[in-house]
């Protein structure tokens, strides 16, 4: 299935824009999920959402030192942008079945031996298939400019999504 979706980005680049890396600052388009084993990362990823991430950071003492002091929280890192300029977008998960032997349904859900192997690998060292999640592609989209649903532009600009599929 992946090859068909990514193939659409080559054949219909206007309708299906390809995005190599959502972390580049340009969010729109279709991208494949990148999964790295934690020992290879040079950063900490805190995937708690637009609300949860700043909540965790602030309670950990990472934020504006004046605001943290007013709350009685000791500052560990003075970073005034935490919990500022927040935005989020709607996401729809659309599960469907395809006639493809590489689909997740055939690779994992209909393969009990692979399920057992995957669970054993994850339990022994925290790596493998079960660390990647079930989503392997995302499409971040915007409503057309002619659509009057949005009366104002989002705070983070026109290179970010209104919704995600």
From TrEMBL:
* Cofactor(s) required for function per UniProt: FAD
Residue ranges of domain Glucose-methanol-choline oxidoreductase N-terminal in the record: 49-63
Keyword line:
FAD, Flavoprotein
**Family membership noted in the UniProt record:** Belongs to the GMC oxidoreductase family.
Q: What is this protein called?
A: Glucose-methanol-choline oxidoreductase N-terminal domain-containing protein
The record's annotation in PROSITE patterns points to: GMC_OXRED_2 (PS00624)
Molecular function in Gene Ontology: flavin adenine dinucleotide binding; oxidoreductase activity, acting on CH-OH group of donors
InterPro entries, alphabetized: FAD/NAD-bd_sf, GMC_OxRdtase, GMC_OxRdtase_N
Q: Which domain of life is it from?
A: Eukaryota
């Amino acid at each position: 299935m992946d090859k068909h979706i990514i193939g659409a980005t080559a054949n219909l680049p206007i309708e299906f824009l390809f995005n190599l890396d959502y972390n580049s600052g340009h969010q729109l388009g279709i991208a494949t999920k990148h999964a790295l084993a934690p020992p290879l990362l040079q950063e900490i990823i805190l995937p708690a959402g637009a609300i949860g991430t700043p909540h965790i950071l602030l309670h950990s003492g990472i934020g504006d030192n004046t605001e943290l002091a007013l709350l009685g929280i000791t500052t560990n890192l003075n970073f005034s942008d935490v919990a500022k300029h927040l935005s989020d977008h709607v996401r729809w998960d659309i599960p469907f079945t395809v006639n493809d032997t590489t689909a997740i349904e055939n690779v994992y859900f209909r393969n009990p031996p692979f399920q057992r192997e995957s669970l054993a690998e994850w339990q022994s060292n925290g790596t493998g298939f079960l660390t990647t999640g079930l989503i392997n592609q995302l499409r971040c989209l915007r409503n057309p400019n002619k659509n009057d649903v949005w009366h104002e532009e989002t705070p983070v600009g026109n290179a970010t999504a209104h919704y995600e599929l």
